Amino acid sequence: MHDAPLAPFTPRVPLAQLRLRRRVGRRIARRSALVLAALAVAVVAARHAPAQIGPPPAPPENPVTPAKAVLGKILFWDEQLASDNTVSCGTCHRPAQGGGDLRFVANPGPDGIRPSPDDLFGSPGVIRSDAVNEYEPDPVHGFLPQATARNAQTNLMAGFHHELFWDGRAASTFVDPQTGLVAVASGGALESQSLAPIVSSVEMGHAGRDWSEVTTKLALSHPLALAANLPADVAAALAVDPSYAELFDAAFGDPAITAARIAFALASYQRSFVPDQTAWDAFNAGNSAALTPRQQNGLNLFTGKAGCGNCHVLGLFTDDTFRNIGLRDPATDPGRQAVTGNFADRGKMKVPSLRNAGLRRRFMHSGQFVDLNQVVGFYDRGGDFADNRDPLIVPLRLTPGERDALVDFVANGLTDGRAAQEVAPFDRPLLYAERNLGNPSLFGRGSRGAGGFEPRAIAVTPPNIGNWDFKFGLFEARGNSVALAILSLAAAPPGTLFKGIPINVDLSQIAYVGTFVTAGAGAGNGHATFVGELPDDPTLIGLELFAEWFVADPLARGGFATSAGIEFDLF
């Protein structure tokens, strides 16, 4: 669907520049109470004392440098990396949420019903859009943001894994998606993982989004134009190199922006995500008071009766394997089998690190548990499904006090306060979506058409100058009908009517009119999208625009059904 201006406009003049396009050892003998207590602490520490963890290894093809890491930090938190400017990598992977997502959306499980007990909880992504970045209905979520099929896995400690994603499809060997050549022979799982969400039509992109589009957009975007409260290292980097071309030049020696370099930068930044200043780390280093007595009991249970340490090995708190823990029927999600083709891998998922797990709000690949008490309860009963369940998953028969101690250890003994408070190296900008600025926003009311449907406006894309993907949309309109997108420099006074139709925009100050033919057929099934590029012109900052959709409908009063108004304040 293309729009054609009904009023003359010339590209590259104010406003009219809107261009339309598209993660116990041995017993101690009885002694005095003081000696016994001191020895007990020493034995517990020695019994579970692995070597101190250091920074994760970086592949020789991508050594970590400060310039590369700060570029990765900027990219990771830039919502402009999404095709509608609403989602960044960090949107779904926040340090204060244990590297996961505070938000969640339910997907219907095998029964196809939502809500129901078999629902899967994923992260909200973008509203579904087609190959030219125009909105289209999603079979499950309609014109609301889509949801990922699995819970967002923590990206804390991700640099220590040989494969990433729940099913491990992000391989150790990283292949440049633009050239098809091997860019990292081994140890490049982070590089492999980092690019997938950017071109995913559910997470950050639209159908068919390619790297040429992504790199072109970055070249034209002001880094972190939507963010606020920039960390000191980010602000310093942008003060010296204010464009993406300059940032890539500082990191790689020339200004070329490529998919491989985006991956290298994102991976370099994420290799700093090592939450190794926990109470357990201090206890393991010899501070006997770092863990409370109950947490020490939880540690003993963790490595003893509960058997958690068999898979969540002390230190990394993962063994970097894939296991079927009996959470779901493998027929509903094959997990690792989908990657390897091996039937023995059915239902297996990545064993995540438990560092900072106490900060998470959803657990397991399905996101079905909302706290660690539910998680421990699941393991205590020995899982829920038997098909291909790992032999280590057996009923634990924990007492209520043991459950509490185990939860206390994981929730508090393994939390690094730097991540919880989001201070360096876990500091970050404030995202546009978090700032609740109400820009864009809807106002006024619309009028109904055929079938009693009132056309509904979609307005989620921030109206920042230089926005390559500025758009707003329409749905629940009459299908296969002419729709007008009217942009005005003023709102109509409240209560304004035109032929009995509520009007939200001042028709005497029209700046632009676009015509569309709504996709879909029948009453309430039509949709359309205005896609344009806001010019990178500072003189437009502060300009207010008001938009409204008018849909030709012979069954509507005055021959048109209308949407609510949309207000945009350019910045």
Assign a percent range to the helix content.
10-25%
Average pLDDT works out at 91
Distance between the termini: 28 Å
Look at the structure and name the CATH superfamily of the largest domain: Cytochrome c-like domain
Concise synopsis of the structure shown:
The protein has helices at 33-47, 66-76, 89-92, 189-199, 211-220, 232-240, 244-252, 259-270, 279-284, 293-303, 337-340, 372-380, 400-413, 417-421; strands at 4-5, 19-20, 105-107, 120-122, 174-175, 182-184, 322-323, 349-350, 441-443, 456-458, 470-477, 482-488, 497-498, 501-502, 510-517, 526-533, 544-552, 560-562, 565-569. By secondary structure, the protein is α+β, with helices and mostly antiparallel strands. The protein has three domains: 4-19 and 437-569, Immunoglobulins (Immunoglobulin-like), CATH 2.60.40.10; 66-276, Cytochrome Bc1 Complex, Chain D, domain 2 (Orthogonal Bundle), CATH 1.10.760.10; 284-415, Cytochrome Bc1 Complex, Chain D, domain 2 (Orthogonal Bundle), CATH 1.10.760.
